[in-house]
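> forwarded from #structure-qc
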């Protein structure tokens, strides 16, 4: 902790010497296994911050029983090389013992009701674990901005809400999802997919595309089109398909019109993937 603070202080001194009067710090929190989606966050971080800090930490608190904490891809050398190619970056890659010297924190942060829906329903306690680590990272790094990818839409919502609820002095920047040419959202977990599963995983973005096209005709058309797009893929089990009001993250009712967010989670083989898209709901 002291070391990363020292690195940031030195980088700020350096920036001041170059004439930057009030150097800003942009933090990109990651769990490593960096892909182009993460690198898009780093690119944006360079636009909003004079100093870029990337944290790499597979946070045990956000993994439930039987989830992939042990097998989650850890590729630190490749991550450092990839970051090196993007420009000067302060990398903060603490161990679990450094982050949680007394084991699980006694202090808890609850993501509230929204934290129990969708991802939170399948992954009990997941968002509480995310909020604890994000809070700790914000306190350690004290950035001006913190960047998240839109792919983790519910994470973006609960983190933004925590920042507002707790008056944390940071700006949350959200960066668009980066996709493969066939539409699959980039995710570190895509590396779990075998060849057939990789082809089948295209269903998630196909569901969102179908939802987007049908949204203008209303919620029933949207759901019917999205469900139809999810059919006929034996390797894919749809876990949820939900349409929420982006302001509350609660499911929209039949009378809702305007900007809505469609979220999908599916198991492709044994891999659980998520995706989401904003649509205009008419009807
Ligand atoms: O999105 C992630 O990779 C993680 O949830 C985060 C924000 C780095 C917290 O561990």
């Amino acid at each position: 902790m002291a070391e990363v603070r020292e690195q940031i202080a030195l980088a700020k001194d350096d920036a001041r010497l170059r004439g930057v009067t009030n150097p800003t710090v942009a933090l990109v929190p990651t769990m490593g296994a960096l892909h182009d989606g993460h690198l898009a966050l780093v690119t944006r971080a360079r636009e909003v911050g004079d100093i870029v800090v990337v944290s790499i930490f597979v946070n045990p608190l956000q993994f439930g029983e039987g989830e992939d904490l042990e097998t989650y891809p850890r590729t630190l050398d490749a991550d450092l090389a990839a970051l090196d190619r993007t420009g000067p970056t302060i990398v903060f890659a603490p161990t679990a013992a450094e982050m949680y010297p007394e084991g699980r924190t006694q202090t808890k942060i609850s993501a509230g009701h929204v934290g129990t829906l969708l991802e939170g329903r399948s992954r009990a306690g997941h968002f509480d674990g995310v909020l604890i680590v994000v809070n700790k990272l914000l306190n350690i790094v004290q950035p001006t901005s913190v960047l998240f990818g839109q792919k983790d839409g519910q994470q973006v919502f609960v983190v933004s809400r925590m920042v507002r609820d707790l008056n944390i002095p940071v700006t949350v920047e959200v960066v668009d999802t980066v996709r493969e040419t066939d539409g699959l959202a980039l995710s570190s977990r895509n590396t779990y997919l075998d060849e057939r599963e990789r082809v089948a995983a295209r269903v998630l973005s196909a569901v969102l595309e179908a939802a987007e096209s049908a949204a203008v005709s209303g919620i029933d058309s949207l759901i019917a089109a999205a469900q139809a797009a999810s059919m006929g893929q034996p390797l894919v089990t749809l876990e949820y398909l939900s349409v929420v009001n982006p302001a509350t993250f609660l499911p929209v009712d039949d009378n809702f019109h305007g900007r809505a967010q469609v979220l999908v989670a599916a198991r492709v083989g044994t891999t659980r993937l998520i995706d989401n898209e904003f649509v205009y709901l008419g009807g």
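QC bot note: Strands lie at 25-30, 51-56, 90-92, 145-149, 171-175, 236-244, 258-268, 271-281. Residues 188-281 form a domain with the Pantoate--beta-alanine Ligase; Chain: A,domain 2 fold (CATH 3.30.1300.10).
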